[in-house]
Every structure is written in structure tokens, then in C-alpha cells.
Amino acid sequence: MKITLLCLFLVVADASSYLEPGNTYRYDYEAVTFTGFPHAGLSRAGLKIKAKAEIEKISRNEAIINLRKAQVLQYLGEWPAGSFEPAPRIEEPLLRQLQNPVKFIYSEGDVGRIYASPEMSDTAVNVVRGVLNLLQITPSKNKRSFDIQEAGIQGVCQTRYIRQEASGSDKIVIIKARNLNNCTQNATLTTGAAYTEACPACEKISKNVQSAATIRISVQRSSSLGEVIHRVKSTEVHAFSPFHNQQGSAMTETKQALTLENISPSSSQSIRSSSMEERGGIMYKFPESATRKLAPLILTKRGSLETEIEDRLKLLSENSRGPVQSDAPLHFVNLVSLLRTTSTSMLRNVWRRTAQAAEYRRWFLDALPAIGTPAVIEFLEKAINQDEITPSEASTTLFMTLNTQEASAKTVKEVQDRILNNNHIRQSPVLRKTMLLGYGSLVRRHCVHQPTCPEALLTPLHDMLREALNEGKETKAILAIKAIANAGQKQSIEHLRHCMPSSRSGTPEVEKTTIPTQAEAIIALRSIAKKSPLKVAGVVLRELLDRNVHVGLRIHSCIALLETRPSIAVLTLVAQRLQAEHSLQIAGFFYSHLRTLSRSSVPELRNLAIISNIASKIMSPNYDRLGCRYSKAVHVDAFSGPAMAGVAADVFMINGGSDIIPNSLDVKIRGYFLSHAADVVEVQLHSGGLNEILFRKPFPGEDPGSVVVDSSIQSTLHKLYKWKSMYRQTPLAAAELKLFGQNVAFGGIGEEKINALLEVLGRLQSRTSSVRSVVKHLQDGLDGTVGKGYLLAEMHRLMPVSIGIPLDVAITLAGVANMQAFVHAKFPSTLPADLRLQDILSSEMELQATGSASFSKHLHTVMALSTEMFQVGLQSSTTFQGQLPLDAKARFSARDGNFKISTSPTSTDTEIVRMRTETKAFIRDLAATKAVPVLPESTVQTTSGSSSQQSSGVHYFSSEARQSAESFSQEWRSHPHMPKPIPQPSSSAEDTDSVEIPYMDSFIYAKPITRHMEACINFSSIPRKLCMSSKIRSATYIQNTLLYKLIGPVDAKIVLKQSPLTEFSSPLRSMEMEIQTGQRSAEKIDIGLVRMPSSNTAQSWRSSEETEGLLESVLKRLHGFLTDENEYAPSMSSSKSSSEFTSGSSSRGFNRTAGKRRASSSSSSSDGLSISVSASMSSREQRKHARSRPHGKASPHRMFSGSTGSSSEEQNVLNLFKLSAEEHSQSSSSSSSSSESNSISINVPSSDKESPSAVVIMRAVYENGQTGGLQTGVFYSYSPRKDRYKVHTIVASIGNRDSWKLCSEMESSCSRAKAIVTWGKECSQYAVEARLASGKIAHHSAARLDVKWARVPTWVKIVSRMAYDCSVISAYNLGMTEIEKSNPPRKISITAAALSPRIVDVIVKLPEVTLFKQGMILPAALSLQNEIAFGEETGIAGRALGTGRARPGPFDCWGISSTSEALLNSTISFMQDPVPAECHLWNNTVHTFDGVKVPFNASKNCRHVLAQHCVPKMSFVIMLKPMSGQPHNLSLEMHLGDTKVEIESVHGKLTPKVNNRRVDYRRVDNPHSVKGINITKENGAIVVKAEPFGVKRLVFDGNNCTVKLSTWMRGQVCGMCGRADSERNMTYRTPSHKLAKDSESFMQSWVLMEEGCGGECPLQRQSVMMGKPNAWPHSGDKCYSTEPVLRCPSTCTPTSKQNVTVGMHCVPSDWRSEGRLDLMSNKREDMSASVEAHKGCKA
Question: Per residue in 1297-1306, pLDDT tens?
């Protein structure tokens, strides 16, 4: 009992009430807050509040506070020169609220609940909270210093107490330091950032917002009153920076002072009885207006809202009739702000008055989604039900509304009742899709900060998914899954698992899920992984490691797993498992994903990058050699530390291995800013079925879907053990769009939709009335205006400051875009009566279009104290504005081959794009807004303490202001958020220790830096110039960081200005471009397009060149491939030497001697003018160049391993191209000892002798009729004898006003091509030449590209140097090696020899370095002409497939076609993989489609499936069967649709049958066609071509067979030939899609059985029992095969046997179900063993 009393006494003694009942404490209260930058000379905005605080303690725990004589002052201007001024418009509404008393609970220094009258606003109560926050004390007499989580106005935050008390003194000092960044309950409010994610790793580097507060409390001890709070001083700082903290910060500093004046007994009793209601505790309470956005931009007056709304609509509609004004976005934001204060009835009233006006209607609907209030939901429900808005308007408005709506519980319930269960919306497919996707996004935003989302919100989506799975509706299920993905809640994982392939063994309805549904379920888990990564990782890991799951689904699981950021244990486990993976698709994808992630520099992925680098080393680096037919992942990112911003891009290419076109392409862009991350945009493209549509060629009059094998053979194929069809992708193309991680739109287009569209177009073309209606509308003119207002982003972060007013840090992006156009058409007056579409296209018509496109965007970044009555702070406004006027006329005549377009330029300067940025300090109230620039216009450039500068008339601040500045400088200098001062250099070493570092004083009198830049591009012959200018005033004199560079005004623009030409005195009328083709081209071009320069001119140019050294050497002699001796030598036989580069035809070589070159340059012929640009190099210069790269010394650009000294790689590459060291030394010595002059010549045709094929004229027409501009002539010729095409192009000024010209010559044959471009004075100043030749090197196809130049302009040299540096770095990344060898200074040579379609040897010769690489892997295979496969062709495949090849055309070898149809076919062929999908059965060995050799041991008299279309609706089946009595001969049975083709050998002769009818043998040499099947005989073999069925070519000679598939059939086949999907490690796939243990088991799985012992193939599949294996530990057990083994029935005797390897499952000895394969097939595999199988039986 004594101990209890003692403890109670200590507790009572330790407690301090600070306020005694019955007394009134009168305090003087003053609070000052500034928002700005912590440097003098910059503008700030601030408030000062003064009041008399009377606190009356009415009971032991209750007190009343009353603020009297309150004053509000405002500060706006340069600091510290300014002063506070009265703010009546802020003071008046605030004082009316502060006159009311406030009751609060106060016990032992703790402020409890607060009570106020209902008339008192939340803002006024919060101001009182700011005063009470000074009285919050947690006493502790026993501890001098302690830490505690203490409640305050900012929340429950970490607080450190320090108690100072001198012995014998009656004064106590309590110091509180609060870390406002470490709060368990934070009184902050964030809106508009629900789609972003916090980046903790970024916050560890730098926090954008840092807050701290210190409070000093002086307590006076009194014998009568106890401890009394005598004085309180508080300082609070909030620092905000959009970049790194070291780049500078904007700050809000608040200081409070509470000083005791007197204490008197309480006298008033009326206050105690007043009615009050509870208003919360000491923690700040956000008013309802705080959630109403746009507060820092707009303050709404209490007036006639409907009138103001209509005025804004009128203003916006008037603005849309012309170019968008710069303040249009502000008007749109103001409209949104006004609409946010309206009710549903007021919205309906405004809609009724404005819906009939199209312009008002458009702006009203654009602003509706941005309102974000529940009134919008009710309005949309009524508008949609009453059909007041169109379906397109409803879809757009509804989706945007659901994504911007306030996500409160009340709003979600309102959406469920009014939108989600709306029958009118459910009946529309578009609205239904929009509604579900938007509802999922709304649920996500509502539950973003909740650990568990209420199940009632997700139930509608889960029920929809369950119904779709039960009904087997794929489209409905995918829509439900996408809505669930938008919601992104972990409760949905269990529902999505029903769609997973590993969980499909449950209910029968779950078995109906298709692969697209399963893929969507896995993709949805990626969204859920952001909230529950561990649970998602467990689900997708199971799918990833299950080899029975579809490869595409496993790749999606891999993506989802890595997005969960797994641990190193998980990743290394997966890497080890996938190292032994059979599928190259999944293993290669996972490896590429790890490799690209390991290079990431984003802080968020730093740990994952380290883990990925470790895990990737477990796997084989050979996965890097996989080409484009395999799935790939690419991750690229960049992050700026100073800006604390970055971007990351992920590209996922999922392929099936059948071709180089990916089946799925996923591109995602992720951004990082303000310590947050967001998936900005994600685009998914699917091309399933595209291959078949592009490349399938059905025969005429037949539907491709009807080409299906007869049902009887399908039932026979089903006798294969557990035969399963492959999934066939039905959509032609599909696309999905995600914005900020939310599914926005998705859809697909199939073959049916395309056929329907083509049918509609065909009907439109044949209908005369439809065409004439279109013509009439064009003749009458089409006038349209499209305007759009949008609010793209609106993010707010509100945090209370100590005076009780919230600090709002907001980012708002709004814009307005407008486009106007008027189109008018003129047609010939005599149009035919039966007008058709082709008549319009072939006639002469004229189109005239006028209009403009313009936009304006406003980006506002605000840091301000914000209430519904006033805002005070900083605002940075950036305006983007642009416009593009249009006034053009186009004339088109297909008959004459003429196209002309002209435009009338404006007579004034046109601002195309302009950007303006300015940061201001502002004070805004309900009446007006005052703002001043943060960086003032006039600032004095003087340093303090300089008498000379003072005497020069420099103005200083007053002494009082200066003293205040110096005082504040000392405070801010010691502030922890202030940047550290930079020491100034001392004049002497002795003064180093005593020098004073100038800091704030020098800043006060410094001068802002202004930079002005302008650059213009002048256009010749056109009086216009394009100018880019910028003017920037920055505060880098304070701190040279990114933030201080941007706080001043920035003005940058691109303007098209007037530039009058002295040559043309008349104004510009129009600018025209005309294209003329055909015979009339000569009429459009000047006769003097090319003038022959006189010999004097040419001679003077050469002499000036030699004297001034303007041109240098072009190239040296060509020596082989590493030197320049025999570059264009005639074709040589490969038997002479494998080093000689052969080609199909010879080419004109360069002149060998200087005399020949001079003769060539000065000669001319009737064909035109021969222009030569030459350059000489003296022997001295050559020796200098030879010495520039001494042997054994690395060049500045060397960065390749193994490039020093003599290496084996260098010798190998020299041996490859047969270049001896002696040849190189001889060529080097000869080239360095002689003076050589090289030339680049071009034959220019003359327009007066040859007619151009086409003419392009760009002219400027002036009012006086003069013209200026450029004219281009294209001359085309073809020589059938040389099989060579030539194209000459000449560009010159109109009327030859100057001598500048550009000439080009392009020449092409089937083995080489050449292009020469010369330009300058008479095409003789600069020259570049490129030559491309093809041929063979040691039986390998090869090509060589040479580029040389004589002289180029300076800008070309700069760009070339940059490209050269990039090429060297790229070569290093590709693993190329450098050779010590000097090269010609003005030549680039690239030589490549193809060892296979995807492996090449490359050697690159640059002026300063030689690079090479052997065995370079190409991402895609090359299409090599005249080669079926690499290596020697053998057998029937070589004889049959090598015949009948047509002679290539002149452009075929380069992939260029002369007709549009051929060009389209060439383009489509380019997308195909040129390596053919061929399967050969030769010498009892099957060479599969993927190049794997499999022994073929045929079972006697049994049919074997060689290849078949492995989809539910198969189009062909090919089977082989050993012939009875002829064991070495085979018979072929082929089913093509409903046609059966049989080929047998009868008496040594092949006999084909079609549908059991023998084909006349004498007619086999001629084609026998039936339903798209062509049967011929070539070289003694039967050749079957059935392209519509997927069999491009089949060759059969009785013993051997070759099958060549059509391109679209790749990846859709199965059988002994494999699947043609590039999965070489998965060749042994059985009909059940499982992998066989060996080739024998694989071959037996494709044998077709027959019933009974009397049939031709009586084999049966059984589960074979074997005794207990030695490796099995359990005695008495017996083991059965889990895979089928061919055995003869019990009534038959085996004639031949073989051993096969199968999996075994062991059971106890008393198990009594021998041979039951159906029971053993699903058992686990305990071991594998070799068992006996039968190949033939007899009765």
C-alpha cells in the first residue's frame, strides 16, 4: 500500500498542468510565414497574423481560447527590401470566424479534443489549432533528454525533448525538435497520384519534401500558480525541390511567438454555456474544400454560377473559331472550377440551355470528366438513359469520368448503383467495356492506401469472370480479367488462378479456358504484383517452371515474376532450372531479360540488376546467339541524379519460332520523377494468324476454312496416343493500350472483318449514287472544326504548417487544342452518268484546303499556403503554344501524270512553337491576384564593402533593411537545408585561415544572368527564314544548379519570319511544288538545266585547288579486300583461288594513271557532260599519312581486346580473305612512293538531248511574275544488252540564277550497284561515291560496300566524325577486333561473307582503324539467291528441288521490283524467314524441319505420320508405310482436304492415285491439277504441289521423300518431321506434346495402329512391366512404364524387336492392373529404363 501511494505521489508531482482553473491567461500571439527562396534579392510572399489570445481554464481538464484583435498582414515583393502591408480582403472573412470561442481539453500539457460552434469554418478552427500546438508539452522531470512520438498539428511525429533547468532557478526551458518526415500518423493529403508508385530507393538518395520544426518553451515556476508557460517560440521549415536537394530548394518558413502578458481571475461565464460540437483533436483536419482541386489556380466567387458558366462556354467557343489563344487553358480550368461547385440540378439546367449549340456542347462534355464530383455520375446516368448524348460521347465521357472521379466510398457506391447495374449501358458493347474498365480503375484508386480492399467492391468483377468461364465465353472472360487488372487487388488472385493452366484440373467449366484467357490472367497478375508481390511470385513461378504449360504463357509468367522483384534465391533457382530447359524460347527470353536488367542504372532496379547479373552467369552465354525467331526482352533506361528523373523502356518480343515476325510485341515506358514512378504508356501488339493471312494462297473459288481433311482420317489420327491439337490463333491482329498501368482500349481485327470491309468498299466502288454523293459534298465544300479541352494531370500534396494553414504543392497540366479546315473540290463539268470511283481517280481534279491547327498548354507548379479564401506562395507557369496555318491548293491529273500543290504564305511573321516559363510570388484572394517575378527585373551589381562601387551611384537598401537581411542571413546560413557556401580564393597563403567567406552579402547585390540566342536558317529564292531564339534570365549567380537556372523567365520560340530578297523586289504570291512524269516532263524543265563549264573555269578551279589545298586524296589503289588492287576486277573462276572476289558481270574500273584521269575529266560525249572531282596527294603527304599509324601503337579510338601485337585472330582473318603480308607491304610501299591523283567522275545528261523521266519543281512565285526556286530532273535508262539500269538526277536553280547544282548517278545490275553524288559549283565542288558488289568468296556468298569522297563541306565532316566515333563504340559492343593497318584517308570499306544465312564474317576498313569479326550472328536470316541450302545437295532433294528456277530479273537480286504487285510480294517475302522449312527422309534418316537427324526404323506394315497440320481443322496429313514384300520401298498416303493422294511403287514404277483413281502414267509429265493440287513428274520422282493446303512442294521417289512447307504453315505442324518452330531441343515431341526419351520412342509414338491381329499393323500400346530395377531401393516392388510401348497382342508373335527408353513408375507387388496404360499414364515418373518394344507381328 505504501509503495502504491508513493508511486501515485511521484506521478502527481511529475505532472504539470501549466493552466490553473479559474484563471485567464492573456498572451500576445504573432505568426509570420514566408514562401520563397532562401536568398536576399529574390521576391517572396508571406503572411503575418497578430492577435491577443485569451485562454480561460474553466475546469481541471477544460479550457476556452478566444483570439481577439486579430490582424492579417501580407508581404509581396523583393526580400528584405519590402514590408508587410494590411490585407483587408484576407483579414475580413478570417476575423469573422476567429471571433468565436473554441473549447479544448487540456490536461497535463496534452491538448485533447477540440469543440467549436457549427458556424465556425474548418479553416478558422485550424488557425486556432496552430496556437494550441504551442501549448502541447509532454513533461518529464526525471529525464533531461528523451525521444517520443508526440501528437501535434502535423501528426504524430518523432520528437526529441531537451529540458534545461538551472539549480535554484525558477525558470525552465524546454526545447522540442520535431522530425516531420518521420511520422506514424501523418496529417498529409495527396490527390491525383493514385496511378503512381512511391520509389523508396529514390527517396534514399534525395527527398523532394523535407520538413522540420523546433519549439522553445520557457516555463516560469510560481508558488501560487505552479508552472506557467511564459514564452513560446517556434520555427518550422518545409523545403521542396523537384530535383535533387543539392540543386536548391524552395522553402516555406513559419515562425510563431506566444508571450504571456498577464494572468487574471476568470470573470465571464456566458461562454461555458454556448453550444459547441466536437471538431477533432490537435491534429490538422482538412476541410472539405481541400479535396476540391485546382485551389492554387482558381478561387471561385459566390455569384451566379450558371451565368458565369455560360460566359466561360461562350468565351471558349469564340476562341475556337481561330487559333487558340495563350490563355485558353486558363479559361478551361476556370470552367472546371466553376462546375465543381454546382449540383446535379444546376448541371442539368446548364446542359438544357447549351446542348443544342454544338460548340457549347463540346466544351461542356470536355469539362465534365474533370469535375470529379458525385453530381457528374447522376448527370451521366440520366443523359445516357434518355439518349441525350451519342454513344461515342457517352463512351469517352464515361471512361474519363470514372478515371478522374473522387474515389470515396460514397462515390464507388454511387457508381455501382447508377452505372454498373444500368441496363441501358449493359446493352451497348462499347459502353459496357468502357464501364467495366473505368470501374476497375475507380476501385484501384479507392483502395490504393488500404491494405485490403472491401470484397463488396470486387464482387461484381469476380462474378462476371465466373459466369464467363462457366459459359465458355472467351471475350467476356478477357474483359472481366482486364477490369480486374485495373483494380489490381490481391483478393483477385484466387479467382485468376482458376484460369491458370496449372490449375485447370478442377471443375469442367475451368477446362474451357483458352490460351488467350490464360495469358490475360497472367498479365493481370503483373498489375496485382505492385500490391502483393510475394503472393504473385508464388503463382507465376509455378507456371514458369511447368514444362507442360504453353511456351507463350511461360514467357508471360517470366515477365510477371521479374516485376515482383524476386530475391536472389528465387532467380538463381529459376536460372538453374532453365539451364536444362528444352525450349529455347523460354530459356533465351529469360537470359536476355536478365542480361538487359543487369545493366540498369535506375535506383529502383539497382538490387534487381545486381541479382540479375549473378543469375545470368549461371546460364550459358550461347543464348545470346539466338536470332529474331526466338523471344527476346530488351530493357533500356536512363536516370539523371541531379534532376532525380529518369525513364525506362521495356520491349518484350514473344515469338513462336516460325518466322521473324513476333507473335506478340509489348512496349512499356516507365517514368521517374518526384521520387515516384509510373508506367506512363504500354502498347501491346499481337499478330496471331497474320502469317497465314499474308502468305496463304487459297485456290480460286474456295473458302480457306473449308480446306479440311476428311473426318475419317481425323478419327484415325485420334488413335494416336493422347493426340492433342495445337492452339490456332484466330485473330489477324490485335492491339492494347495502357495508360498509367490501366487498360484503356483493346481490340482485334480478324479475317472476317477484313473481308467484310473489302466487301463494303467493293459495293461503294460499284454504286454510282454513293460516289456521286461524295462528289457533291466535295463540290459544296466540307467545313469542320475540332476542338478539345483537357486536364491531363492534377496532383496535390497538402501538408499543414504550424500556423494551421495547409501548404499545397501542386502540379497541374491543362491544354486546349483546335483544328479548323475547309475543303473544296472542283471536278470536270463532263462526268459520266454511271460515275464510278475509278472515274474520279483518273480525271483531273482540284482540291483547295484552308484552315489551321493550334494548341496551347499550361503547366503550373505551385507551392503555396492555400485555403478557400486565399493563397500565398510561389507559382511556376510554363506555357506551350503552337500553330500551323494551312492555305493550300492541290491539282491532280492521273492522265497527264501531273501533280501540283501550292500554298499562299502569310504576310506576317508566324510563331510556330513558343515556350514561356516564369516563376512568380503571388497573393490571391476572392477579388484579385497580385504577383511579382521571383527574379526581379532590376537588381544592382555590386559587392558589399566596395567603396568605389558605392561612389558610382549604386543604390543600397536602407540600413534597417540591410540589418534585417544580415540577421536573417546568419539564421539561414546555419540552417541544415541551406547549401554550403563556396570558399573564395584568398590573395595570399597567410590569409587562408582568417579569410571571411562571403555568403549572403554578396548574393544581395549580385546581378541575374541574361542569355539571349537567335539562329536563323535562310532559304534561297524564298523571302522567308526560320529563326530559333531564346531569352533566359537565371539566378545562377546565387547557385549554379538546375533549379536556379529555371526560376527566372525563359522565352524560347521558333518563328517563320519575313526575309526580303534583294533579287526580287516584288512580294511573294505563292509557293508551289509540281511533279510531272511521262513525256511532258521536258516541257516543265529549263533547257539550260546543265551548262558545260568552260575549260578556263575548270582549269582555274583545279589551280585554286592545288594552291589552296581545298581537296585531299579520295582513295588509294584497291588491293583485294584489305588493300585496293583488284576491287572491281573481272569475274574469275573459283578454281584458281578462293581469294578472288567473283561476280556475275564486270564493271568499269577507275582510271589507273593520272593521264587517263585527266583525259577522262576533260572529255565529253553526246550522252552528256562528264564531270570529274579530283584530288591529289603528294608523296610527302602520303608518307605523312603512312606514319600517322605506326605499327604496334594503338590509335586513340582503340578499345578492343586483343588488338595489340600479332594475334591469331588477325592471321585468321587475313587467311580468310587470302591477303599475304607481302602483298600488303608491296601495295603500301608503292602507294607511298608515288604521287597519285584520283577522281570521282559522273556523266550528266543534257536536257536538250535527253528527255527526263520525271521533273520535280519547287518554286516561289512573286507578284511581278518572277519565279525562284529549285528544279529537279530525273533521267532513267535501261540497257537490255548490259542488263543495267541507270538513273541520273540533277538539281539546279530555276532559270540557272546561280551555278550551284547537285548531280547524282545511280547504276544497278544484278551483281553490283553504284551511286555518285556531286554538288556545288556546276556539280564540281564536292563529291561522294558508293559502290556495292556481290559475289562469292570460297563458295560463300559475299558483298562489299565502298564509300569514298573527294571533298565534303565542314558540317558533313562534323557529322561524319560523330558517326565515326559512334561506330567505333558500336563495334566494341559487337565484339569486333582491331588490326594494326593504315587505310586510305577518305574511304570506308565494308566486306561481308555469309557462312550461313545467319553467320557472316565482316571486315570494316575505316580511315583510322580496321575492324573485323568472324562468326557474327545476325538477328535475322539472309535471303541468299540461287541457293536452297548451304552445303552440297544430295539425293532426290538436290535433283528435284533445284529444277525449274526462273532466271532472275535485273532488280530481283537486290529485292527491288518494277511493278506494284511484285513490290508487294517482295515486301511480304522480306518478312518471311528465307531458310525454308524442309524435311528430308533420306537413307532411313529423317532430317526434320529444324535440321535434327532422327533414325527412321519403320514398323512393318504400319503407317507412320511424317507430317500433318496439327490444328483442330487440319488441311493435310502425310503418311508413309513400308510396302509388303518390298521392305526397302515405301508407299505414301497424303490427304489434302477431302482429296486423297497415294503413291506406290508397282513393278519398280511410281503409280500415283487421286481419290483411289489411278492417274494416267503417260500424262504424269504434264501437270495434273485437281482442287489446287498439282502433280508432276521430275527426274523420275513424283512432285506434288498443294500451296493452298500448306504443302509447297513434296518430292517422292519410292525410297526417299522431301516435304517443303508453305511459310504460313510453320509452327502449325507435327509428326516425325517436327514442328518447324526452331525448337531443336524439343524435336522428340509425341502426339500428346510430351518429350520422348529417345528417337525410338519418338518414332513409335507416330505409328498408326489397327485393331486385331489380322490387320496389317496389329501393334498395340501397352504399359510394360519390368522387374524391380537394381536402382530402386524398395524391395518387392514392380515398375510399369508411364509412356506407351508398342507390343504385339497376346495372340500374335513378334517378328522384330528394339529397345526403347521410357519413364517408369514403381508400385507394390500386390498391384493387380498389369498393362493398364490409362492408369499409369498420369502417375509420377520414378525413373527411366530401357524396355523391349515390337516392330512387327504375325498371327
Answer: 677 888 988 8
